[in-house]
């Protein structure tokens, strides 16, 4: 069994090791804007990192709500709590007896037999960047030298990166993708926890950037765009099928056909001629060409031109388009798609919380997630597609008003408890796991950790509990750091 080798390895090593190391270096060059490891050929060149997966789910859609969804306003309402805790919204019944959720999520309420809740996920951080890293990687601890302002190659690898490296690909496509944008703070700094971290850049998940950065406007543009502080700045963003990234200076619009692309790949082949076996590199090249020219990929990404019925069901906005894209990507063969439902801190409802949730955040979310459930149920794929939805933390029990920044009240950051939503992939619909206390402040029954959350995804995708990944020095790193959440399946 071969593993990635360090840059100091002797050139006299086994030829297959040299080839693989060089192929990984080739991935760093940036063909397609993603590592060469994502392509089928390199997957064939590397040995399996553990026993063959046996999980029920063929794929996973990880819906991430950056900013932190308020549990009191969504899936864990406290109607009997004091007014400054229960808030303005009221609960409604779902199709599951005894289960109530927010009145502004009526479509999901009608589909409760298809989804489950964990109301007791807990961790220790109330800071955005640290909590992003915790939830996106499934590690409650922060790595040595962690910086909230600078993603590092000492960070823990993201759940998406782990899936991308370990879960076998289908249809010659990357095993993992993140859509429709990277999470970037309004200051321009990239949020840590999104990448492969210590595994190395070649294992970074495929970033599909269909949504441009905007530093004051949030939500499901163009229909439901808003500014947390109502500063009145316009939001000119356009959601569009992204261009596949190629080496610098060569965009898709500059490619006249397969021949020109093939020539670019041949140039890199010549650069590696002293190391790569021709047959192996041909497989890599064929995988790259397949990714760029495969009509399934282009169709999956071109969601704004979908049929009218699909657009009506999902919504003509970035939330609807993103979940439609995720649905198409998993149908095409991508194994895990992380959907950032809104740009960085879209769900950070410190103030103006109730009108922004009621008018801008819940309507497109309710519609798009419900459409995703309906699609997968109708096609018979729901049972083999795990869907999870979580933010980096919950919100404080107490409602507060930050007068210097907001006109109306909201809730602050709260890592101590949040509600996490699950569907498909063997999840028992209508199930509620764990409880929070009477004020929605702390777990009162079956507390679960981010490690359990990550393990639930890995287990559904069939990653064995004994699986490890190896770093450049051949050191093994465990993938599981907790058991899957009990009671969901």
Automatic annotation (TrEMBL):
<dbReference type="InterPro" id="IPR010869">
    <property type="entry name" value="DUF1501"/>
</dbReference>
<protein>
    <recommendedName>
        <fullName>DUF1501 domain-containing protein</fullName>
    </recommendedName>
</protein>
<dbReference type="Pfam" id="PF07394">
    <property type="entry name" value="DUF1501"/>
</dbReference>
<dbReference type="InterPro" id="IPR017850">
    <property type="entry name" value="Alkaline_phosphatase_core_sf"/>
</dbReference>
<dbReference type="InterPro" id="IPR006311">
    <property type="entry name" value="TAT_signal"/>
</dbReference>
């Amino acid at each position: 069994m071969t593993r990635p080798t360090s840059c100091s390895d002797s050139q006299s090593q086994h030829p297959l090791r040299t080839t693989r190391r060089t192929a990984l270096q080739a991935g760093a060059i940036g063909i397609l804007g993603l590592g060469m490891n994502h392509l089928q050929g390199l997957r064939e060149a590397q040995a399996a990192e553990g026993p063959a997966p046996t999980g029920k789910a063929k794929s996973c859609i990880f819906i991430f709500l950056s900013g932190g969804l308020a549990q009191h306003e969504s899936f864990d309402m406290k109607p009997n709590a004091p007014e400054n805790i229960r808030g303005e919204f009221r609960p409604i019944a779902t199709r599951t007896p005894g289960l109530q959720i927010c009145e502004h999520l009526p479509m999901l309420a009608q589909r409760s037999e298809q989804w489950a809740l964990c109301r007791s996920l807990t961790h220790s951080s109330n800071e955005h960047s640290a909590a992003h890293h915790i939830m996106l990687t499934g590690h409650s601890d922060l790595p040595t030298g962690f910086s909230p302002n600078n993603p590092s190659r000492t960070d823990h690898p993201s759940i998406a990166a782990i899936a991308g490296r370990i879960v076998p690909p289908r249809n010659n496509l990357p095993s993992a993708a993140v859509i429709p944008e990277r999470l970037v703070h309004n200051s321009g700094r990239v949020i840590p926890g999104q990448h492969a971290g210590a595994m190395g850049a070649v294992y970074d998940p495929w970033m599909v950037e269909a949504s441009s950065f905007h530093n004051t406007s949030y939500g499901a543009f163009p229909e439901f765009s808003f500014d947390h502080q109502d500063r009145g700045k316009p939001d000119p963003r356009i959601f569009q099928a992204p261009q596949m990234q190629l080496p610098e200076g060569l965009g898709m619009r500059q490619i006249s056909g397969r021949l020109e692309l093939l020539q670019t790949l041949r140039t890199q082949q010549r650069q590696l001629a002293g190391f790569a076996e021709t047959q192996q590199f041909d497989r890599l090249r064929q995988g790259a060409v397949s990714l760029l020219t495969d009509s399934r990929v282009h169709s999956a990404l071109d969601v704004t031109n979908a049929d009218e019925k699909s657009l009506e069901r999902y919504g003509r906005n970035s939330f609807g388009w993103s979940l439609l894209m995720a649905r198409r990507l998993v149908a095409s063969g991508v194994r895990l798609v992380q959907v950032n439902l809104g740009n960085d801190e879209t769900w950070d409802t410190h103030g103006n919380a109730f009108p922004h949730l009621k008018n801008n955040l819940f309507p497109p979310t309710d519609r798009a997630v419900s459409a995703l459930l309906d699609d997968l149920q109708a096609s018979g794929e729901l049972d083999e597609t795990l869907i999870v939805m979580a933010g980096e933390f919950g919100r404080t029990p107490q409602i507060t008003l930050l007068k210097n920044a907001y006109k109306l009240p909201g809730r602050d950051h709260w890592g101590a408890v949040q509600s996490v939503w699950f569907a498909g992939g063997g999840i028992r619909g209508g199930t509620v796991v764990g409880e929070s206390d009477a004020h929605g402040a702390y777990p009162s029954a079956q507390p679960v950790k981010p490690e359990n959350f990550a393990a639930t995804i890995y287990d559904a995708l069939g990653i064995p509990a004994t699986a490890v990944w190896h770093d450049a020095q051949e050191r093994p790193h465990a993938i599981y750091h907790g058991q899957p959440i009990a009671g969901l399946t």
